[in-house]
């Protein structure tokens, strides 16, 4: 029989610690109405390499759209998006280095439903949002890659493979960090008629920053779960990791709600309640593990004060602005309600420890229990074990432009043939003076005016 003052970690705690939102990528809308071959027929159909690229683009987009719509295995979706990515980059580069000959026979119009939004009917998917910019298509494809990694991580967690889950969520975080720090800042000119608020979360810098923090926090949740499976638990370390998770989630809330409020309001209500739940849970777990570490050091009164504070954080909050578990945990049919049995079990576990510790403090150690945890005894800053790394997909080596010119204009074809293998071009790293959206608007204006393009 185990010592009631030092009981084993309950399985309910492990399940709560690894509870996750079911992430899914966005969805391509009206895929059949956009064909690269048709749009670039005059500029590219007579060039074998360009014609092949356009056919590959159209097929790759159809494959990606089919996978996203049917909700196929996230690993397959990741594969489709990874195949599509270099193709769309090649077309974008070709248009950048040949702006005068990158003419359209029909307008490009990319339609997506964001995977991080819930402002459409049902509250689980975003409304259709459109843009003619190739950079929009590229941004959403990168978003699919990030969210596919997150979805794969959820699967690993359910299977109990926490090491693999750490890797998947870290990959998702790295892709979001690339969006935030490299890709989206290059999209420098959205145009007078298009603002970041008109596009999905995946195209907003602050949303990418926030979700990078969330996915890092998920990776750290998985690391905590792995640590709890060991024969000996380092309570001090795990407590600091839980506080670090809470700090990462709080940074997500601060950044997105504070600086991308339009997108915050679009997010599914269930997701925002999940975020509130995890914030309070990680706060409680951080104090719980610190209490166990402090008890082991012989500071019994302070440890009991910590345990009582941890138990308080597991109670349902009094209002939506106060600390505590969201009230949805008690609402039958609510997504959070599935966690109620484990939460009740964890509460009973902590109650049992509190009773045993109180008895020892009063009858064995005669240690005074402070009314609150002394400031000097609290964890001042959590530990961020998971760091951002390089995203392998950011490497654009081997991407070369294909020729674009109107058939019959020998001067243009001669000009292309004379270009060196690696033509001087405005790289993504240096930004774009003329963004892809600018090019799209110029071409669209010519089409609308009936000019010869």
Which SSEs are present, and which pair or pack?
Blueprint: H1 11-17, E1 27-28, H2 36-39, H3 41-44, H4 48-70, H5 74-97, E2 110-113, E3 128-131, H6 134-158, H7 162-186, H8 205-228, H9 235-259, H10 261-266, H11 269-296, H12 300-313, H13 340-365, H14 410-417, H15 436-449
Antiparallel strand pairs: 1-2, 2-3
Helix pairs in contact: 1-13, 4-5, 5-6, 6-7, 7-8, 8-9, 9-11, 11-12, 12-13
First-last Cα distance: 84 Å
- How many individual helices? 15
Strand order of the largest sheet: 1-2-3
Count every beta strand, where a strand is a DSSP E run of 2 or more residues. 3
Flag low-confidence runs: 410-414, 420-437, 443-453
Query: What is Rg?
Result: 27 Å
* CATH H-level superfamily title of the domain at 22-231 and 403-453: alix/aip1 like domains
**CATH architectural designation of the domain at 22-231 and 403-453:** Alpha Horseshoe
* Shape, per Cα inertia axes: elongated
Provide the helix percentage: 55-70%
Largest pleated sheet:
3 strands, antiparallel
Q: Helices and strands, in N-to-C order?
A: HEHHHHEEHHHHHHHHHH
Please indicate the percent range of residues in DSSP E strands (runs of 2 or more).
Answer: under 5%
CATH top level of the domain at 22-231 and 403-453 is Mainly Alpha
User: CATH topology of the domain at 22-231 and 403-453, what is it called?
Assistant: Serine Threonine Protein Phosphatase 5, Tetratricopeptide repeat
Mean pLDDT over the full residue set: 87
């Amino acid at each position: 029989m185990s010592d009631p003052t030092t009981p084993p970690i309950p399985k309910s705690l492990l399940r709560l610690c690894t509870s996750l939102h079911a992430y899914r990528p966005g969805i391509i809308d009206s895929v059949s109405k956009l064909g690269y071959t048709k749009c670039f027929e005059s500029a590219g159909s007579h060039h074998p390499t360009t014609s092949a690229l356009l056919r590959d683009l159209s097929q790759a987009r159809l494959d990606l759209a089919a996978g996203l719509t049917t909700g196929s295995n996230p690993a397959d979706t990741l594969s489709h998006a990874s195949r599509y990515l270099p193709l769309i980059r090649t077309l974008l580069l070709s248009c950048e280095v040949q702006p005068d000959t990158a003419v359209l026979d029909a307008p490009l119009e990319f339609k997506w439903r964001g995977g991080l939004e819930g402002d459409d009917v049902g509250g689980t998917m975003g409304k259709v949002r459109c843009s003619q910019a190739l950079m929009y298509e590229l941004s959403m494809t990168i978003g699919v890659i990030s969210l596919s990694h997150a979805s794969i991580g959820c699967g690993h967690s359910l299977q109990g493979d926490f090491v693999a889950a750490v890797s998947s969520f870290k990959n998702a975080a790295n892709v979001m960090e690339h969006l935030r720090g490299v890709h989206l800042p290059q999209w420098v000119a959205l145009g007078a008629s298009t603002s970041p608020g008109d596009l999905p979360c995946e195209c907003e810098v602050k949303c990418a920053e926030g979700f990078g923090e969330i996915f890092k926090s998920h990776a750290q949740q998985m690391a905590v779960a792995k640590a709890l499976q060991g024969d000996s638990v380092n309570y001090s370390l795990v407590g600091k990791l839980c506080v670090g998770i809470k700090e990462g989630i709080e940074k997500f809330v601060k950044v997105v709600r504070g600086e991308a409020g339009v997108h915050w309001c679009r997010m599914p209500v269930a997701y925002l309640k999940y975020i509130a739940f995890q914030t309070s849970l990680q706060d409680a777990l951080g104090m719980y593990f610190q209490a166990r570490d402090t008890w082991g050091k012989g500071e019994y009164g302070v440890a009991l004060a910590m345990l009582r504070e941890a138990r308080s954080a597991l109670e349902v909050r009094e209002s939506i602005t106060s600390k505590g578990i969201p009230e949805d945990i008690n609402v039958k049919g609510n997504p959070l309600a599935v966690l109620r049995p484990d939460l009740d079990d964890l509460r009973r576990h902590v109650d049992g420890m509190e009773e045993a510790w109180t008895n020892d403090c009063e009858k064995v150690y005669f240690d005074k229990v402070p009314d609150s945890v002394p400031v000097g005894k609290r964890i001042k800053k959590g530990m961020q074990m998971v760091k951002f790394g390089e995203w392998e997909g950011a490497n654009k080596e081997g991407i070369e432009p294909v020729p674009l010119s109107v058939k019959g204009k020998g001067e243009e074809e001669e000009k292309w043939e004379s270009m060196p293998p690696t033509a001087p071009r405005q790289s993504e790293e240096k930004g774009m003076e003329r963004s892809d959206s600018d090019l799209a608007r110029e071409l669209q204006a010519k089409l609308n005016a009936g000019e010869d393009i």
